[in-house]
Structure formats: structure tokens, C-alpha cells
Amino acid sequence: MDDEGAAMTTTTPRTEIEPYDPGSVAQRWQQRWEADGLYRTPDHVEGQQNWYALTMLPYTSGDLHVGHWFAMAPSDVLARFKRMQGYNVLFPMGFDAFGLPAENAAIAGGVHPKDWTDANIERMRGQLKRMGAMFDWEREINSSDPSYYRWTQWWFLQLYRQGLAYRAEAAVNWCPSCNTVLANEQVIDGHCERCHTEVEQRQMEQWFFRITDYAEQLLDNDQLEWPEHVKRMQRNWIGRSEGTEVSFALETPTADGSDEIRVFTTRPDTLCGVTFMVLAPEHPLVSQITTEERRVEVEAYVEQARHTTEIERQATDRPKTGVFTGAYSVNRLTGERVPIWIADYALATYGTGAVMGVPAHDQRDFELAGKFGLEIRVVVAPPGWDGKPLSEAYLGRDGSQVSSGRFDGMPNAEGYEAIADHIVAQGWGERRVTYRMRDWLISRQRYWGTPIPILYCDDCGTQPVPEDQLPVVLPEDAEFKPTGDSPLKRHAGFLNTTCPQCGGPATRETDTMDTFVDSSWYFLRYVSPHDDEAPFDAEKAKLWGPVDQYTGGAEHAVMHLLYARFFVKMMRDLGLVDHGEPFLRLFNQGIVLSEHTKMSKSRGNVVAPDAYVSELGADVVRLYLMFMGPWEGGGDWSDAGINGIARWMNRAWDLATSPADALPAADGPADRDMTRRMHQTIRRVTTDIERFKYNTALAAMMELTNDMAPAFEARSVSQPVWAETVRRLLLLLAPMAPHVTEELWERTGNPYSIHAQPLPAWDDALAAVDEATLVVQVNGKVRERIAVPADISEADAKQQALASERVRAYTDGHDVTKVVFVPGRHLVSVVVK
RNA sequence: GCCGAAGUGGCGGAAUGGUAGACGCGACGGUCUCAAAAACCGUUGGGGGCAACCCUGUGCCGGUUCGACUCCGGCCUUCGGCACCA
Hints:
The chain is α+β, with helices and mostly antiparallel strands. The chain contains 27 helices and 34 strands. The chain binds one RNA strand through helix 7, strand 11, strand 15, helix 11 and helix 20.
């Protein structure tokens, strides 16, 4: 067989070994693992610490694409890695199963949302299983199952009882043609995405969660091991503003006795620069204060604002608009009379819905004043101000007070405090903190969601459904018609009920909850997914604690992650959990691209993993996704790139299965090198995986196999060292490629299962090199490399460096002014003049 | 507009302030083959030189340092987030 020529290559005689068949290997082990319950997770194992690993649960859209794999497979690697490090690891999976697409499918295709969803779950579960993750399927959850949403309703009732759930009027996007509320994403340039009708704003009774009560606590995220930008985004989203709420007197009190307008300002130092007031068009005082001669114009403006969507209104490049109400207010600080305007740049939902107009020191006020010829009075003089009119508002905080009466001459930072104190002392207002974040609107006029467990009785008013009557079940015989009306509204059997208080007739709330409510507590349901006494078992929740490592897409940086934090804080305040944060560590993976663009159905560039899994195996798909680049960076899917991984997988298979009979029984000349390489690889792979650097962990293993092949061919490594190298390579690779390593583990004579083995440890002494390359730089340029003992002394290194002929070519005839030795780096830097 | 992240070969990417381009893809040359594919071996930032080697090179311009992809200042570009929040 082998002749002189063959020794020149690393070709393994393939006739002797069975080639790798990924399909049969994966199938065999997936069946075995499931039959053995290898991934069932007990709540406690003596002598092991619990570790809760979680990846965001998928929406039941239908098919798993490579984006799902990219999110889940590397998470699985970490979970498996932790397991091999000796932790009792919980790594569950479930389905975010409520939501609009199911209902749209029902309207369009006549298939019931439940059937559509269940079929998708069935398909996705199968696809997830083919990925070979260590999910504990006995803990699977489905947010659209009554056994789950019963508890979502239960949470609603706890919030309601705490006063954290309330009903109020809110503006929503309303399509008058579809006769329904639209989410912001469904409004395209002010028009309905489906029928292209112009969308208007409508006031409707809606349910809210009082998340703003927790604004201050949610702001405190310093101790979380999350990406800094996510924490910053949450802080910006919450948008804490310190300022002063100031009362302005109404010159003419209204018929119902209101005699003031309250405004929130972060700049009390500019109070003497107020030359007008602005109310939001929706402000309750508008209709009352508008004078008869201004009424027609004001009402027209209000009406116009009503038809403008929130999104349109928030376009910052829109020229300022507004109308005068005819009414005046009095600035109590100056006694001045200022006109009251309405303008849609004042937001009804922020602060008090009214602002004081200080055109010299606020750009929006400046623009309005410029357009309508209102006075622009400078009260904070910019440094070096020449007294001339400003070309734009001066927003700086380093000016001094002018035209501010007794406050004149103060630096405005001081004026800020003095004027605010004065306002408070006079009883004209108080210091206040305002948040940009609004309460969470959870009402959805949809069928396919968790019904809000509330009913309305003519006599007893709004009544919560008693807990023992949960769940309020979605009627399956609802009708799905393209009217836009919720099917629950037209379902008499659902709608009509009796009041738990008086037994009289009552109607049910027909709105369902935002699906973000479902996903705000699912991570706790996994600790006791079949519990029918409580949403979760408190003792088990204590055992698992908060999620140790959460992974998912960056698109959830604010909403989902903020809502979940709110829920856990609420649970803690109810005494149901010990911890106040749901996720201790967070990691955001990047996005997989295809043809350099984001995958989307409309572009038709969605990459389905199924064909690659069938052809190359789940292990190769997993490895390729991890090798594309750093996990947080995402990457571009390439058919060519995956072949490199497939090739390497085959090479590794050949190495592990080649009979080692021809190798020396002991004392191979390359044993020391091979052992060192092995320990270096263990060290690199271990530290890389802990930092989510799967790409470099894999590269390290590739380097090892690149060294193993020639050593095997040259028979320079002994049988025991070879066997040990193969064994440890398999262990290191096991979290990433669970099927093929299990197969090779068995074929190399090891006991089932590789996934129950401890991770190999490295020995720094064995990983250490004994010969190193001394690099010599002259004036920063590398001029020489000398082989030296690794433990060379500083003096020897410098001496050898300076003695080198090549170095002397650069130093002879020059003054050597400095010689630097860098110990750990085997580097000498020579400076010459 | 504001906040943030990132710019390295033909491509994906690697480098605790210390040998830039690991590992992989692709390309080129070769082995095997009647031939091709697969597999394997070799070369592969650019420029120069017969060669040993030399010059140059991490978006652009400066700075710190014996030494900068890395740190600092200022630009440019791309991508994310927020966007009239008083």
C-alpha cells in the first residue's frame, strides 16, 4: 500500500476506513439521546451548581431558517460547555405562539389560527430537534396553550390588584376602512399597509400596565452584565428628565373653574424669557379657553392634528405650525401677560401636555416665534454676546442671566437653582422628574392573543374575572372575516356572561394582550412548566434563580428586555421571587446575511438550513455558522464557505478513525510537540468559548488537526499520545458538533455519552514552549529572528540580539541609545541614532 | 440632528501596545486520473530583486511611544438605535 510517494502526502488510505455519513450519524444519536432522556434536567443534582441558559423563544412563523440556527446553535454550545464544566444546566425551549400573522392567515386562507400555529409548532419542533441541541423537551411551553395563558391572565389580575393595570383613553392608529387599530409598524407613510387608506388618530379605551412606576428601578441597570449599548438604549428609552413643574395663571378662569396651566420645564432659568404658551392640540383646556373669534381656526387645527398620525407628527423636519387661541395667561414670576397658542409639537402624552414658549432658548419655540412674529427675548446671555438678535436658540448652560429682574448677573446654572427655589417657595410649582417612557399599552383588538380577564357589569362596573374562573378561554368557533372587527366582539357566547359580584348580566372585555406580555414571564414557567397550581413553583424558581446567560437578537434590546425586567420586579414586590432581575448576563448575536443583505421573504433570499442539514449534516451547519465570524457580528451565508467546514469535518473523521497500529508503541519523536499542541488547544478553546469566540475556538482545533495529520503520516507520534490527542479533540469539539463526536467517541472505544464527560483541563507547564523565536527590532523594524531557549534571560537575549550580524548591519557606526527587552514576548527592541 | 458600533488581502475574518494577515474560502501551480470531479501537496497583501533580502501596507490627517490595527485628537464612510420628550 504505502510507498515512498505516499509518505510525501498526508493522504489517509481511505479504503481502510468508513467514510463519514452525517445523516445516519445524526439520526442514530438523536434517537438514542431522546430514548435515554440524556437532556432531561433535574431541578437539583447533589454536588452540582445550577446554571440557567436561555435563548429567546422563537415566534411560530412556520419554518426555521438559518437565523434561528445562528441564534440557537451557539447558545446550545455554551449550554453544553457549561454542562461539561460540571454544572446542572437548564436549557429549555418553547414557542411564542400568539400574534397577528396567525390571524391574518385565518382571514386570508380560512385556516383557524390555532391550527395554523399548531402545525407550525409541529414543524418547527421537528426542525429544532434536527439541530441536535440539548433542549429539555419535557419543559416545552406554548404561549397560546390555555395551560400557559391562564397564568398570563393570572399575572394581569395581580397587576390589576396592585393598581398596576388600568384602563384609560389613548390615541391609536385607526384605519377607517379596515375598521381596526393598527400597530405603528403597519402604518406606512401615514397609510394602512393593507388597504392604503389614510390612517387617523382615534381616542379609545385601552388597558395599560403602569411600567412608569418602575422607571427609576429600571434605570438602575449598572450591575447587569449586559452589552453597554443595550443598557444605554434602555436608559435613553426611559429618558429621565429633572426639572420644574410651573403653574401659569389663566387670565380668565374657565367655566368649570380651572385657573391655571401647568407646564414642565428643564430650564427654570429661562422663565423670564417666556413670550407665549403652547398647549398640545389634545390638551383638555383647549376647547375651554379658546375665544369665540378664534374658535373656527382652532377647531380646524385640532381636527387636522387628529388626522395626522403620531409618526407623521414626529417628523422633525416639518415646519412648525400652530394657532393662537385668543386666550392669555400670566407668568407669575414677571407678572407678564402671554398669549396661549396650540401647536402639534407639544405632545399631550409627555409632561403636562403644555410647554412654556421660550424662543430665545428652545429651538422649536424659536421656529414658531419666527414664523408668527412673536417676541424672542434673551434671558441667558451667551458668553461674549453682543446684544444682537440670535440666529438660532441659545441652548448653552454657560451663559448668565439677563432681563431676569433680581436674578440678573447670575451664571445661569445658579439662576436655574435660584428661580426653581423661588417658584417652589412661592407655591407656584415644584421640582419634578419626568420620564420619556410611557405606560405600556397592552390592549390589542385581536382574537389570537391572551384574553384580558375583565368583564363589565352595568351595576358593578369593571370586574376582574375571579382567579378560580381562569382561564378565560378563546372560543374556537369564532368567525374570521376581513372586517377588521375582533371576532371576539361578534361572538355572543364569549361576550355575554354573568357578573361574579351580583350574578347579573355582564359583557367580557374583548381585547387581548400584547404578545410581549406572554414573553415577559416565560423564563419562569420553564422551572415548572406543568404546574397547575401556580404560574411557577416558588421553590424551583429559587433553585434556578435568574437566567445566568440569556442570548438573543438586538432587536429586543428595549421592549422585551424592559418588559421582562418590569415583570420580575413586580413579582419580587409580590414576594414570588427573590431576585429583581430576570437575566444576569445578556449576549446579542449578530444577523446572518445572504448576498450581503438581510434575509427576507420578499427579497426571496432566505436560506433554509434543511437542505444543508440533509446533505452535510447538522454538525457541519452548526460549525459553519460559528466559523463565519464573531458571533456578535453576524455574517454572510456562503455556499462556498460551508464546504471548507465539511472538508475539515471529513478530515477530522478520518484522523479519529484511522487505525493507529502503524504508530510506534511509545516514545514518538513528536510526542512532546503533540502534547504541547494539545494543551495549547484546550486552553485556547476553553477561553474562547467562554468569550463567545467560537470562530477562533474552531480555528484552534483546525490548527491542531493540521498538525496531527503529518505527524500521523510520518509515524512520529506514539500510539498512546495519538489516542489521547484524539480523545481530547473530540471532547473539545463535542459542544459544537454533538453528533459526530458522539459517534467517534463510541468508535474510539469510549463509554457513552461524550456529553456526560468533563471537559479536558490543560496544564500550562505542558502547554509551554521550550524554544522560542527572539525577535529583534531596530528602530521599530523587525530585522532578525533568532531561535533561543524559551526561558532566556534578559541579559542573554540582549547580548545575542546585539551580536547578530544582521542587527549589526544596522547598529555599526551608530550610537545604540536604548535596548528594550520584552520578557513574555521574546522581543528585543534596539534604538540607534 | 443626537447617541452608539465598525472600517485590516480577491472574500469571511485573526492579532493582552510587541513578528499584521492565524484559521477558512477563492484563485493559481502540481500529484492522482484516459479525462473530469473529489481528495491531497505547494504558492498566494502590493512593489522591487537572480538571490540573501529591501521598500511599502490595517479608511484619511496628526499625536503619544523604543514600538500603534490596538491608545489620544480631528475628519471621512458604512451600519444600528433614538428622533419635536419641553
